[in-house]
Fold:
Amino acid sequence: MFRFHIRIVLAFFAALLAGTVANAETLTETSPDGQITLTVSDDGGMARYALAYRGEAAIAPSQLGLLFRDHHGFDGHLAIAGSTRAASDSTWEQPWGERRVMRDNHRELAVTFAASEGPARSMTVRFRLFDDGVGFRYELQEQDALKGEVNVMEELTQFAVGEDTQAWWIPSGLFNRYEYIYRNGPASEVETAHTPITFRKASGVHFSIHEAALVDYSAMSLQQQRPGTLKARLSPRSDGALVQTTAPFHTPWRTIQIAPDAKGLINSGLILNLNEPNALGDVSWVEPGKYVGIWWAMHINERSWGHDGIHGATTEETKRYIDFAAEHGFNGVLVEGWNVGWDGDWYYNGALFRFAEAFPDFDLAELGAYAQSKGVRIIGHHETSGNITNYENQMEAAFDLYQKNGVATVKTGYVADAGRIARIDENGVPRYEWHDGQIMVDHHLRVVREAAKRHIAINPHEPVKDTGLRRTYPNWVSREGARGMEYNAWGSPPNPPSHEATLAFTRMLSGPMDFTPGIFDLRHNSRPPVRADIPRHDPENFAQTTLAKQLALYVVLYSPIQMAADLPENYAKRMDAFQFIKDVPTDWEESVALDGAVGEFVAIARKKRGSDEWFLGALTDENPRALTLKLDFLDPGRRYVAQVYRDGDKADWQTNPYDMAIYEQRVRAGETLTLPLASSGGAAIRFVPVGD
Ligand code: NOJ
Ligand code: CA
Structure:
């Protein structure tokens, strides 16, 4: 500490004597494979960084810095006062995940900038360079210049991506949180963007900006500053600051994943590598699996959350789902609408929810026992409608109740317009927060920790975005945070044919998504209503995919918990296709993205954990295409029976979505396989090894 202070003071006087401009210093470091070059400088008294990939600029020189409300910040008059370097190459294991063994091979450069005007002070920017990208974070030591409460008022971080670089993004700061259709165009057209935001350069190099380990801070989205230069935009707190903290503190990692092609981004492990190791110890109680539930019926107005004569969550109906789950090997049954609070306009009535009080037609104790007697568990639900004080007041009792009844996973929900999370502060004052502000970042972790004490896993909808915290808290199994299947029930417009081929290269880079795939009745809103006074939604709302593409989603969109979202009676009509959903696992030894183009198509292979079976999912946008895939991911020298579920020759999402070819084919590692995909179609394959 003492030596550190001396260095700052020396650098301060050196800067005063020499003038920062004349003595500009530049430091460089490369990724372990030498393909990524980082440059850090104090040119012009500004902290700046730049990234090049294979000699081509990815991020042109871009500013670094922070501003505070009551303290001097770090924008100009900065000089590099010191730096340290390190390197590390290790492996670690995921308790569950898209791959078991993770390699963390990185070099590190930590650069300390000291200010030459105002009070003596310094900030360190720590960079980690991996072969698949770079992360950096600000670290602020305890120092005289940062005494007391520190309110971050601006983060100056820039990402100069270039005007013409192609981008895929969703806007930030709008009412629907992360639930927007992806936009695509040159980076100069981005106004605001949530992360991950994905880019493609003319050379074919792809990169994606996001963040890792978002803890006790506000989420970062991006804003266009000058054409082609995006700037960090932290979600504000209701008290005006962006972040409230005390030194020492550090920010989350700002991440830039880089790859020579689109599929390389999916194969990156950078976000998880930048998170802290498991903090929960033995997490064998976190069980990946598949579930069905009292859910889609409500979204398509077949049933209802509240009591208007078609209540979904009744004891009898839940038993029907438990029986179906047990018969077909699912380990969970989600039940929404069982607790007091759903009657009336629940979107606006968050204060009315009672999380430990059931409606009279639902018997949690009976159902918890019934489910467990059949090897199934109820999946609990806590819809808060964005009222977090009402929820936190009841949370412990609510988790206790679930634990008592064998509930091991709880889906939470924060349905409320962005910026309309309601809470009462410590002085009794009502406030509104953003879904991705510091208050909510803290709230989600409180929920996850409280649940962990009772061996319960959490799956939030309308969440804060994923930043890889499942590594530290492995009971944070999945989340929403994008347009999921529900938009095909009532979305107006529903998700377009390019949606999932975009998600794979954008939202999915952040972590698992509870997309809830597997809709088999693709024209649900064209059916007569269950009651004349409860009309169906507009028939324009339906899943704009073929049936085969619905199956492909189980492999393409990774989540350790996957729903079979449609009604049991719709699966009963297509047991041939349903067999794939029964067979596909949700926990993987290895995952390999094979091919793809952002928003156009993607093919991913995954090896089942604890088994020699492989699975493959491929899907396309509205353009039909024949995919030729090399089966070099299969174990060398082995033969397999491929159980193929693909679009039939006449399949088309608009005119003939159900046409599907299901057949077996013998294949060997290294062979090529050609898959014809229909317009908005897909293919799903299970590879079972056979003896030679
Ligand atoms: C929105 C969620 O995304 C959906 O899954 C849920 O059914 C409703 N909110 C009600 O909680
Ligand atoms: Ca939602």
